[in-house]
Amino acid sequence: MQKGDWQLRLMAYLDNELSPVDRKAFEEEMAQNREIRLEMEKLQTVKNMTTRIAFTDLEDADWKHYWRGIYNRTEQTVGWVLLSAGAIILSVYGLYHILQDLWLDTSVPFVIRAGLFAFLAGLVILLVSVARHRLHTAKKDPYRGVTR
Amino acid sequence: MEQVQEKAWIEQTIGGDQEAFGHLVTAYSRPAYFTALGILGNRDEAYDLSQEAFVRAYRALDKFDLSRPFAPWFFRILRNCCLTFLSRRKVHASLDELRESGVEPVAGDRFDPSLLAERNDDIDRVWRALGALEDASREIIVLKDLQGHRYKEIAVILGIPEGTVMSRLYHARQKLKTILLEERAR
What we know:
Chain A is mostly helical. Helices cover 80% and strands 0% of the residues of chain A.
């Protein structure tokens, strides 16, 4: 029998995932193969050790707050989405009017128009810079190929 | 838990009844927290990320296939949350702290034995060995031996065939055995 073949069935045997017929057949094979028997004993010991591990439970108060925490987060998500959507709409509307009232109005002093230009230029530079930095970081991420 | 009951809760949640989702949370909060704890090895992070997984599941519930059980779908979301968090933490640590100090991160460092219900030298040794495994090996042992999932469920959670589950489990246990033997030899 190939080693790779019995390794998988050994796992299924240890974890009680074989059907009764397959289990009996594997036990017969094991009885005739010392290598499988020794491997089974070693891995059974490892499994016995890992199955003994149990975690400390949280305090009752932590579990009481658990659902409340999730509820708050879902509620806050809705709030953030609405707030963001509203802020974007108002910002676009405000910028449009600022442009119309200040930029296109030739009676507005030059200093104010220069300030407006500097503000918009700074905003564009910052947005482009942040986007470029994010793109650069994503490309350099050593874990980008990790299957999640 | 009965799939019929779960399906009813999910349908009620999609229909706008948030309290129905609370029943699902109550049913799966402990397994979710302990699974995250096995992967992350930190109580606060496990608490926070298991909650985050429920929030993500809640948001994606309308895309859930009602003919399937909830648990494997949810645990897949939870796993993604934990792995994304771990990969970000590794990137952050390697960029901001470890590169300058020259210290490499050790998985076992974040596995605090005080998380264990029962402690003795043997259990502490196994816990340290689990912490020294790479994430994928530790994850499959946690899912099988600590959480008691069947192969079929693990296959769905990890998105791999059952044969690959057995193969990964075999190699993970072999690595664990080697680490335990090395530690005993010291």
